[in-house]
Amino acid sequence: MIEFQEGYFTFYTYIITNKAKTVLYTGMTKNLKRRLTEHNDHVNLKSFTARYNAHYLLYFEKFTWVELAIGREKEIKGWTRNKKIELIKTINPEMRFLNHLFE
Q1: What is the DSSP string of 36-96?
Q2: Model confidence over 41-71: pLDDT tens digits?
Q3: pLDDT tens sequence across 71-95
Q4: 10, 13, 19, 45: most buried, per Cβ within 10 A?
């Protein structure tokens, strides 16, 4: 029997935007630093984030269970823009870019 301890894995749900903050994209990943680099490098040229140049981190949450991170991503994706902005402002009231935290 394999036993997993809580905290062994880390997953992130995050919200990114473009420079003008006109779009919001919600995603989930195991490695936020790598994922932000992929968004910045436009790995998938046809993706939403590449089309709108969204790679500026505004918000993130950490989880130890992938199911919780996926559930939170789906929950946030169903919200209105205003509700997402309210969430962002709970930890980032000035809506500054937080990418430097993962460099």
Answers
A1: HHHHHHTSSTTSHHHHTT--EEEEEEEESSHHHHHHHHHHHHTS-HHHHHHHHHHH-TT--
A2: 998 889 999 999 999 999 999 999 999 999 9
A3: 999 999 999 999 999 999 999 999 9
A4: 13
- Whether 1 maps to a domain, the answer reads no
Tokens of 97: 């870019």
The DSSP H or E segment spanning 49 is helix 48-51
Please give the angle made by the CA atoms of 41, 83 and 42, to the nearest 5 degrees.
5
* Domain limits for position 39: 11-102
> Which of the 8 DSSP states describes residue 17?
E
The reply to whether 4 falls in a domain is no
**Residue 65 exposure: Cα atoms within 13 Å on the Cβ side:** 7
Pick from 55, 70, 57, 56: which is nearest to 11 by CA?
A: 70
Report the CATH number that the domain containing residue 50 is assigned in CATH: 3.40.1440
Beta-sheet strands, E only, within 1-103? 11-17, 24-29, 56-63
Answer yes or no: is 6 within a domain. no
